[in-house]
Amino acid sequence: QKEVExxxxxxxxxxxxxxxxxxxYSDRGSQSFFWYRQYSxxxxxxxxxxxxxxxxxxxRFTAQLNKASQYVSLLIRDSQPSDSAxxxxxxxxxxxxxxxxxxxxxKLQVIP
Amino acid sequence: xxxxxxxxxxxxxxxxxxxxxxxxxxxGHRAMYWYKQKAKxxxxxxxxxxxxxxxxxxxxxxxxxxxxxxxxxxxxxxHALQPEDxxxxxxxxxxxxxxxxxxxxxxxxxxxxx
Lengths: 112, 114
Prior knowledge:
Chain A is mainly beta.
C-alpha cells in the first residue's frame, strides 16, 4: 500500500509569514512529486513539480525534496490571505504507468 | 481559465436516470483520467485512458462507464447511480501516461443523486 501522509491542519499563519507544508511518502520507488492547491469547492490546481533532491523555486513557492528521508515540503513566502486553501501533496511512482497517490491535504489559513 | 473543460458544472439526477459527463482538452495530451472526490477527501482515481485505450480501471462499479471517442474527449456515462455516488467528478489530462508528467484538472462536475 503506497501511502502519502500530510498533517490535515488547519495550519494558521499570519499574513506575510512563511507557511511550511510537509509530506512524507512510503514508496522508495517514487519518482515524481507534485503540489496542488485546492480552494473550497474548486478543482486542484498544479503549483509545483519536483523530481530531484534539493530545492526548486517558483515565485513565492519553494518545493523541497529529500528522497533519503522520503520527505517533500512546500514553503510559501510572504503568505497572503488568497493562499488560504487546502494543499495536496501527490506522488507518482515507477510502475510503468502514471498513477498518482494523493495525500489527504493540509488546510492552510492565512490570517490578515 | 482551465485548459481542461468539463460539462456540465452541476448535475442532479435520480437513481433511475442515465446521464453523461463530458471532458475535453486541446493540449495534445494523450492520457486522460477520471477522479471522484468526496468532501474533505483527496481525489480518488477511477479510470485512466492512455492513447485512447483504457489502461486502468480501479474496480469501479459498472454503473460508471467511461468512453474515449478521440484523443481530446473523455466521457463518463452514468446509470442507476446510488446516493453515495454524489461527489465532485474531476477530469484530468497529462502529456502521456508515463510517471513524471503532471496532471491538469478541469473544474469538475458536481453530481447530486436524489
